[in-house]
């Protein structure tokens, strides 16, 4: 384990590992705005030790979330390899929200509830690029309603992440029921004209670039 070009001492490396494990637990339980003092306490180190290893909150995010986002990379690749485009689309969507439900920090990151570092933003954009491919593929097969756009998927993420957040402590699986309704409504056979245009790419980019309210 190194920091910059200098290898960490064994005790420092152990402290860093403890901090990463504790941060993963605390962010998953409490979200990305969880107190850093709780992470230090759970890791069994001082807050000063935490700041020595991770001077800014973003440094913790950068260490934790890109590997977690890699799980979505694997799910997307599996979905794109599915010979049934609708099945791949639905399976990836369920896998995405299952991760949201398991990890409140990841929920915050993907719903952009807190400012994110460029590295985490890049991982989120990579995920969205997969979504664009899955949407296009399902539409081309005629199974996904023709007027559904990737920007509409972003709105689905925002709404479902809130459902997950609000129900987690009472009915942690009810999001699956809501997602079932959403997916049924996205099938081509269920489509009815919608009188409001979807977000343009420029509008979506402005929304995703805006700081959280």
| Span of the ends, CA to CA | 37 Å
Poorly predicted runs: none
Q: For the record, what CATH class of the largest domain applies? A: Mainly Alpha
Q: Approximately how much beta-strand content do the residues carry?
A: under 5%
Largest sheet: 2 strands, antiparallel
Assign the CATH architecture of the largest domain: Orthogonal Bundle
Helices, by number, come to: 10
Q: Tally of extended strands? A: 2
Mean pLDDT: 86
Give the SSE order as H and E letters.
EEHHHHHHHHHH
What class, by secondary structure content? mainly alpha
Could you say what the CATH topology of the largest domain is called? Answer: Tetracycline Repressor, domain 2
Name the overall outline: elongated
Domains, number: 2
Give the C-alpha Rg. 19 Å
Oligomer: single chain
User: What share of residues is helical?
Assistant: 55-70%
Tell me the strand order in the biggest sheet: 1-2
Note down, in words, how this protein is organized:
The longest helix has 25 residues, at 57-81. Helix 5 runs antiparallel to helix 9 (174-186) and helix 8 (150-167) packs antiparallel against helix 9. 70% of the residues lie in helices and 2% in strands. The protein is mainly α. The protein has ten helices and two strands. The model has no long low-confidence stretch (mean pLDDT 86). The chain has two domains: 1-55, Homeodomain-like (Arc Repressor Mutant, subunit A), CATH 1.10.10.60; 65-209, Tetracycline Repressor, domain 2 (Orthogonal Bundle). A hairpin with a 2-residue loop joins strand 1 and strand 2 (6-7). Strands 1-2 form a two-stranded antiparallel sheet. The protein has helices at residues 10-30, 36-43, 47-53, 57-81, 85-102, 104-110, 118-140, 150-167, 174-186, 201-209, and strands spanning 2-3, 6-7.
